[in-house]
Design goal:
- Helix content is 75%, strand content 0%.
- It is mainly alpha-helical and 425 residues long.
- The protein has one domain.
- Helix 7 packs parallel to helix 20 and helix 18 packs antiparallel against helix 19.
- The model has no long low-confidence stretch (mean pLDDT 83).
């Protein structure tokens, strides 16, 4: 071992360090308070290896990686626009600055090329740990909504996104475990456990993304097995019945029932102070403010001032005073930065869905787990941000950007490797 360490050059140390830190970022980033700050900072420290000529010379960015860099810069530029046009406080750049810090991770991962099995294992382990954490907080600490020490809404979205990607990536092991179905089932079970962590956190905006991800993952897995249609249909029916029975009387179901009742009441003119009516009113305020300047928006200060004015005129309840955001990434972007800001957010959140599906259709079947992993990960965040602002909070923007970069780099590298193997074969 000592002899091997002595032979390691700068590139070897870069690979060892980045592999360790990237896997830790995936595994531990939301399992304890402020862990995302620690591991994202360690990722940034890896940039010192750009000083090595061997690392720099090994960078060969693919089209998908170049596109991601461009979209990330567009997202950041929309915030600069708000600062310049509306004299916004410079602190507004805190969150997009975290995106800027993670952009160099794209060429770093491209140059170093982490073993894909380590990254897949990290996603599976992370999903299992998130479930253990949610169970601990629910059963031992008796918290109503696990993840609340960090942020229950963010925790739910991140847990479901990681679990969805993990389930898709497990498909890469099918060829290795076809004759050992027990191990494959165990891996799927651990990978899927993160979904329950997200469900236990009871964030409706994130939970509604689960059916979409399950459908996409089903499209991935079904062609890989020679399944008996009768047995498969029976197994799916039993699973659905059991799942429905378990969930029916759960707090999650009650929250969705409350949402339905509140939505009906709101449509009938009842603006009682509840999360549904508050969100809908915040969206209306954002839409009204944004329509006054649909191209560039009105900025944060003007949005708050408009909301205050409408409340004072009696158009909305005073409960909106304590909210400084619109509880929707899309509504907030349109109000503050107009169509320019809205397009930037849609591109940023829609990137993994678009490119995941694009390469799913174009590349060989063996690449499908990576394309689906990217697609379902993006789908969770794209849907979650309709009713919340997951990526506008510190944990969310770091986790979304970091995991997006890792999954994109993983897909890009596997495409290159597969094409190289086919050319040699």
């Amino acid at each position: 071992m000592l002899a091997y360490i002595q032979k390691m050059d700068t590139f070897d140390w870069a690979k060892f360090y980045l592999t360790t830190v990237t896997c830790c970022f995936i595994i531990f980033s939301v399992t304890f308070l402020n862990s995302y700050n620690i591991f994202s900072a360690l990722l940034v420290c890896s940039y010192v290896f750009f000083l090595s000529p061997k690392v720099r010379q090994n960078i060969r960015l693919s089209n998908i990686e170049k596109a991601l860099i461009c979209i990330m810069f567009c997202y950041i530029a929309s915030f600069f626009m708000e600062v310049i046009l509306y004299d916004a406080k410079i602190r507004i750049l805190d969150k997009p600055a975290k995106v800027l810090l993670l952009i160099p991770l794209i060429p770093m991962l491209n140059a170093v090329k982490i073993n894909y099995r380590y990254l897949i294992a990290a996603f599976i382990i992370s999903s299992g740990l998130l479930f253990c954490l949610a169970g601990y907080e629910k059963l031992i600490l008796r918290q109503l909504r696990p993840g609340s020490l960090i942020n229950a809404i963010q925790f739910s979205a991140i847990a479901i996104a990681i679990a969805s990607a993990a389930i898709a990536l497990v498909a890469t092991f099918i060829q290795h475990y076809q004759k050992k179905s027990f191990y494959l089932i165990l891996l799927v079970f651990i990978a899927a456990s993160g979904l329950w962590a997200g469900i236990l956190s009871q964030s409706r905006g994130s939970i509604i993304a689960i059916p979409v991800t399950i459908f996409l993952i089903g499209l991935l897995y079904f062609p890989k097995f020679n399944l008996n249609k009768t047995k498969t249909t029976l197994a799916i029916s039993i699973t659905l019945i059991l799942s429905t029975t378990i969930i029916y009387n759960s707090p999650v179901m009650k929250r969705f029932q409350h949402f339905t009742d509140n939505l009906i009441a709101y449509s009938e003119g009842d603006t009682t102070r509840n999360s549904t009516s508050i969100r809908l009113n915040l969206w209306k305020v954002a839409l009204e403010a944004g329509l006054s300047a649909p191209i560039v928006g009105v900025g944060h200060k003007q949005l708050v001032a408009y909301k205050k004015q409408q409340i004072e005129h009696g158009n909305y309840g005073k409960e909106l005073f304590r909210y400084d955001n619109s509880h929707s990434s899309y509504a907030n972007a349109f109000a503050r930065r107009g169509l320019i800001g809205l397009i930037a957010v849609v591109l940023f959140l829609g990137f993994p869905i678009y490119y995941g599906i694009k390469y799913w259709r174009r590349e060989p079947q063996k690449i499908a787990p990576y394309t689906v992993g990217l697609t379902v990960f993006g789908s969770v965040f794209f849907i979650s941000n309709i009713t919340q602002e997951v990526i506008f909070l510190n944990t969310g923007i770091i986790m979304y950007t970091g995991l997006l970069v890792i999954l994109t780099s993983l897909l890009s590298e596997r495409i290159k490797t597969t094409k190289s193997e086919e050319a040699r074969g």
